[in-house]
Design a protein that fits this description.
Lipocalin; 10-stranded antiparallel β-sheet
Length: 147
């Protein structure tokens, strides 16, 4: 039942995202998993704070490859496990983070980023950029440049 529910959600969202894309010269394709591994820096949405993302392969005995996503948000370091399928479908586990405090602006940016990252459901490579599509309404697309 859960599989059917998520399939319907993904189908609905893929229709939504497909209708909103602007024509560009860049080819949008599901991410080749080997090209996802590495360090990335958030370039869009624009923020006054540095946000990084590192994706590493995690040893596992399960059928689906497991990855570790981690990085630096505006205030804290964070991490989570993720499963990424060959078609770019991604599922990120609960995000854990250090508990440092920061300015109200930095904390707001961090919370917004974490909310968006937690709801990511698709990873695509657009040219040399990593694009993560999220169900979050504030930051629905996260674009990262390779470091």
């Amino acid at each position: 039942m859960k599989t059917i529910f998520w399939s319907l959600i993904l189908l609905s969202l893929s229709s939504f995202f497909g209708c909103n894309r602007q024509a560009t010269n860049n080819i949008i394709q599901p991410a080749d998993l080997s090209n996802l591994i590495g360090k990335w820096k958030l370039s869009n949405p624009k923020t006054d704070f540095t946000i990084t993302l590192e994706i590493t392969r995690k040893p596992t005995e399960a059928n689906a490859p497991t990855y570790r996503v981690s990085g630096l948000s505006p205030v804290n370091q964070y991490g989570a496990d993720a499963t990424i399928q060959a078609n770019g479908i991604i599922n990120i586990s609960a995000i854990i983070a250090t508990k440092r405090g920061g300015s109200p602006e930095a904390m707001t940016a961090e919370t917004t980023y974490f909310n968006s990252l937690q709801q990511v459901e698709k990873a695509e490579l657009v040219g040399d950029k990593l694009q993560l599509q999220s169900r979050d309404t504030q930051w629905s697309v996260l674009v990262f440049d390779k470091q």
